[in-house]
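ARCHIVE CARD
Drawer: 12
Card no.: 0347
Subject: one protein chain, sequence and derived structure
Cross-reference: see card 0346
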Amino acid sequence: MAGVGERFVRVVLVPAAVFQAVVFGGAYGTGREIVEFISVLGPRSGLLALAVVALGFGVIISLSFELARLERTYDYRGFLQALIGRAWVAFEILFLISLLIALAVNGSAAGSILKDQFGIPALVGVGLLFTAVVALNYFGRRLLQESMSICMIALVIVLVIYCGLTIVQYQDAITSAFRNDTVSGNWVTHGAQFMLYSAAVIPVLLYSARGINTRGEAIVSGFSAGIMGAFPALVFHITFMATYPLSMDQELPTYWMIGQLAKPWLMITYIIVLFAMIIQTAAGLLQGVNERLDAWHLETRGLPCKPTTHAMVAGATLFISMVLASFGITALVAQGYGTVAWGYLVIYIVPLLTVGVYKIWLAEKVSTGSPRK
């Protein structure tokens, strides 16, 4: 049983927790992204779009994990070098732009959440975020992955409670919304856009795949992470149908829906978990940066960076993102964020589905006659 439990943790729990933590804090928190990409299509078409999201996540993560396993590289620099050669620099440029935007947005969100809900000064919220992220990056990958696993379990519990209460209170409205709806709209495109927008972080999270030893584990791990990555979106989509289409007009639909339940304790609990997930998002992305620096330092000097270096990198990057946000530069860059997302499609997704698949197939062909991995 111990072996089964250990395998579950390294193959299913850790990769799923890392992916969900980064995706949730960056794209799910307010529910606005779910409305714009998924729920706007209507009840049934939204579900089909979510199926595209979950399937897309599963395929991209599985292929990425398997290629990383074959190449024995778990930082985005080494992974992209194996996939697209010297063009990996283009990914790093796009990622650094995305990272600064994501950290600035998450920092602002952390400050505003505590201020709006609990009356705590925004600077205190930013300070708590800063301290927690630096500490997690200082203590390293193991503690970060453990904290992400705990946060994922807490999030799932909160979402299940929220979904259950909403279904009980609005059962007739939700049932009617789905019964009277018909499939329409370009749900494939919407689902693919949302998936591609979120999947860009996967190469940065390859450190969560270090425990994967076989091709079968890569597939199980990838699709488990994909399903868990799409799970919060499924919960929000179903609950938003309780007041559809009124919920589509809300600036912060998740908060608004929780408010409709008139359960103050649920709102407080959700805010606390959301704040923790925002911390995980920032720490998880910065851990990807530190993994990249460790690989470079190992190549050039024979040993990884020190924990103090990890903490300093995390702190300096957070500080720069906050400065850029205060000058409004982040907002200017964010206007071209859609273009950045399409850039990931060109330099990561397309090569993965072509060059990556070929390399995986070639490795399988070479290993013919030996025990299959």
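Annotation on reverse: Residues 20 and 229 are 5 Å apart (CA to CA). The two ends are 23 Å apart (CA to CA).
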